[in-house]
Write a structure and sequence with these properties.
15 strands, five-stranded mixed sheet, about 425 residues, two-stranded antiparallel sheet, single chain, alpha/beta
């Protein structure tokens, strides 16, 4: 359909222009109708309430159509360039196959094995892993066993205390290892962040010599570019299992405390039975009594530690070298005078293994006269008062006596430097 120029008095709007501007919707005209261009030069769109929501004029229409045509021309040029492209005469070089655990190149293999406790049940586990992987590497023609790295009694939530693991990573950094074998993701790391970081580190710390880890249970080889999502899922599950295990242990501890089944451990002077009873060890008990009495008698912790070292008195672990904190810890443990406090501290981060004093954060318990004491409650109380004092008592604890005559009759004389004394203590001593 043809029409006069928009500058004329009358004319028609082309079908294409009407479609772009949706004139039929805006002005309520049919496609076949002729529209006076003078009437649409300055048009307004009005809503049902009579408010102007937009307006257009012929110059806007012209600019829009010009930009549209320019874009269409650019698109057509791109199409023509692609159509006219000819296949080059260069040689196409295919990419190398994705790395797999079955690659034929020679590999120096390191094996990592870990168990979380030193219980007798897990001794066989680490030995079986060692024998299994020694045979597996020996049966593979292009593999040579470099070393088996094993951590016993180490948690997988952190690498901080896993000395063998850290040594293995260092050997990989020095290009001594090409491949690491591990039975499962959870043996390698139970912390998702650590697992993914270490895998990336092994792959990229020597770009020309990447080190892959093969997790046999999950059949994951970390140098395979398609393994990332699969590894992330299994690392997340291992992390979740650690968190869940921590929650189970907390709940178990709560239940044991609430039912009076307090967890007990060996300590200097005591050994525990399977039933949770603490049995005094006579020879070790002599050391404990000496510490309390010497402290009350005026010796400080440094001097007591020096005496015990000179006399080669054994600690719980059989050592004969003592220090101040060891002496103080023995005097501050309520089990030495027959009481028992359960859950003094709590772990606040199962990954970092950070703990703090339990200030009613979780269930705890304190039971007096739980077992036979090594020292009397009175001796323990005196030692605690000396500890709280102003440390001016160089002659030990003074004698207490009640004044029987004079204006101070009925009063008790005490050493002015004894800052730890209070009313309740005087009543117990009296």
């Amino acid at each position: 359909m043809e029409g006069k120029d928009t500058a004329g008095n009358t004319g028609t709007v082309s079908r294409r222009l009407k479609e772009k501007l949706a004139v039929e919707d805006i002005y309520g005209v049919e496609e076949s109708e002729e529209v006076d261009t003078e009437k649409i030069e300055d048009c307004e769109i009005i809503d049902t309430e009579g408010n102007v929501i937009s307006s257009t004029d012929s110059s806007d229409i012209g600019d829009w159509e010009k930009r549209h045509n320019e874009i269409e021309e650019q698109r057509e040029k791109i199409r023509n360039r692609v159509r006219k492209t000819r296949s080059g005469n260069g040689v196409i070089r295919e990419a190398k196959p994705k790395p797999t655990i079955s690659d034929t190149g020679h590999k120096q293999v390191g094996v990592y094995a870990r168990v979380s406790t030193k219980s007798t049940n897990q001794v066989s586990s680490i030995e079986n892993q060692t024998r299994y992987y020694t045979k597996k590497v020996g049966d593979t023609p292009n593999w040579t066993l470099h070393e088996i790295y094993s951590d016993e009694g180490k948690s997988g939530t952190s690498t901080q205390h896993r000395t063998e693991f850290k040594r293995m990573i260092e050997d990989a950094a020095q290009k001594k290892i090409d491949l690491i074998l591990c039975s499962s993701v959870s043996r390698f790391a139970r912390n998702m962040s650590d697992c993914m970081t270490l895998v990336r580190q092994l792959k990229s710390m020597n770009p020309s010599h990447p080190v892959g880890v093969f997790f046999e249970t999950e059949n994951i080889y970390t140098l395979d570019p398609d393994c990332k999502q699969n590894l992330s899922i299994h690392a997340m599950l291992a992390d979740w299992e650690s968190a869940n295990k921590s929650r189970r242990m907390i709940l178990s501890y709560d239940q044991r405390i609430c039912t009076g089944q307090y967890p007990v451990l060996d300590l200097l002077g005591y050994r525990h039975t399977k039933e949770g009873e603490l049995i005094i060890q006579p020879e070790e008990a002599k050391t404990v009594r000496f510490i309390f009495l010497a402290y009350i008698g005026g010796y400080d912790c440094d001097e007591i530690a020096e005496i015990l070292t000179e006399r080669e008195r054994p600690t719980l672990r059989g050592r004969t070298d003592w220090n101040t904190s060891m002496v103080m810890n023995i005097m501050s443990n309520e089990r030495r005078w027959g009481d028992l406090e359960a859950r003094k501290t709590i772990v606040i981060d199962y990954v970092e293994h950070k703990s703090k004093k339990n200030e009613h954060d979780r269930v705890s318990a304190y039971e007096e006269d739980h077992h036979e004491p090594i020292v009397s409650r009175e001796i323990a109380l005196a030692a605690q008062m000396v500890k709280k004092s102003s440390r001016k008592m160089t002659e030990g604890v003074p004698d207490f006596s009640v004044i029987h005559k004079g204006n101070l009759k009925g009063f008790v004389s005490i050493c002015p430097g004894w800052g730890g004394i209070d009313g309740s203590a005087l009543l117990e001593i009296y």
